Amino acid sequence: MHRFANPARFLRISAVILPWAVGLAALFIATGLYFALFASPPDYQQGESVRIMYVHVPSAWMASFVYGGLALTSAIALVWKHPLAHVAAKAMSPIGACFTFMALATGSLWGKPMWGTWWVWDARLTSVLILFFLYLGHMALLNAFEDSSRGERAAAVLALVGAINLPIIHWSVEWWNTLHQPASIFRMGGPTIDSAMLIPLFLMALGYTAYFVVVLILRMRGELLARKIRVIRMARVTGAEHLSASRATS
Amino acid sequence: MRRFILIVGRELRLAYRQGGDAGLAVAFFVIAAALFPLGIGPEEQLLSRIAAGVVWVTALLAVLLALERLFQTDFEDGTLDLLALSPLPLELVVLAKCLANWLLTGAPLLIAAPIIAVLLHMKTEGLVILTASMLLGTPTLSLIGSIGAALTVGARRGGVLLSLLLLPLYVPVLIFGVSAVDQAVAGMGGKPELLILGAFLAAALPLAPWAAAAALRQAVE
User: Fold this and answer.
1) Residue B219 and residue A134: Cβ atoms within 8 Å?
2) Which of A9, A165, B61, B196 is the most exposed place for a label (fewest CB within 10 A)?
3) CB–CB contact B218 A157 (8 Å)
């Protein structure tokens, strides 16, 4: 794993991956949207509004998935002090927060025609809302310290503590009686929805994942470059001091 | 064990001599709870319906209020470094501080809560369960709170940040604390909810000091 700890190597490898990820994201999201909006049948009960699912469900998956990644990178950062892991964690939480917000917003828009209400205080919705707050807390804690590496370590501990919410989100629809429908895809005995709807759903999920990789690489590269600039500036300042000091003595 | 008791004793002595903190949390609890009848109106049925929620939410905020200084003052005057170097594991230091914090804020709330509940016209069936649920719930709040307090040691705007970090983690305790009382008032006992609150406490007792000590090590490093 420490083979990838070198930022220069990461920049090289990520530069190769980036165009592929951009291409895959564009391809999957374009075909997924075509199937979702035009080539898939409307639901027999929900009519056309079922198409919200193709945006809502993948964002909800990504919201949990990104938090899983955040917890994993935080654990790696704390245990092995891997230098890139902190950069990755810092890059992930805003992306995850955006996916969570999208899941909540589209779910709310879907809930109005289906359940007759924008919001219910049930276990699934509440636990996803808490996930959103955890992301916000992670971002706030990262920026709360003068010493940025202290903020990174504190945020990593918080990310691990918050991981307790992930199983709660996943099983909330089974543990509690709720308006939100139970899992119909990742369940024992295979999915219960038709392949005409499953294919666009998976295309969208793959597209979202590729898009996540694109944004993650961009944000990590940006963070590494920002650090480089900071180091160069510091070197320039101390270099100037040395110069003026040597001038004063000579 | 002797060192553990010494730390608890030190915390209690400090609080006693400086006065304030413990009393302030209860005073905040009473005043904040008293605002609800003034804001909503003195209608008896409405108040008795929301009494459990009001008592639990204000108690939760009162606990939060006292947590900000759990490690902050020790961090500022250097005591935290000495505690981290002491032969007692840092996890037990955290546990001792949680116990002292609970004795100073949680325990007084236990006495104040039924009084406030009576003033809010809670039905008498609910009062015993309310006290029982707070007896099980408030130590969990102190324990989870120690994680947040340890994470925000030395942070800018620590207080606001602390509530942003902790309130999401407090939600399960709040939900089961309130529903225990609601079930009891509805005549269904509320024992399952109390058992779940007990499970939360049993889980937080070893895990929270562990996480908080990990966070404190980052702070004193």
Assistant:
1) no
2) A9
3) yes
